[in-house]
Amino acid sequence: xxxxxxxxxxxxxxxxxxxxxxxxxxxxxxxxxxxxxxxxLKNISDVMDENSRRR
Length: 55
Known about the structure:
Blueprint: H1 2-23, H2 29-54
Helix pairs in contact: 1-2
């Protein structure tokens, strides 16, 4: 349950950091990589949660 609340917050914060970095014309590869990693973890968590609810 915690991940369902925490992951969207992390994604929002990371997306804001990427956007700010792009406006400041800075290198945002690390932030973008972190965003995609958190998104991957969220999707895996959602799939595992859905599978556990079906049982």
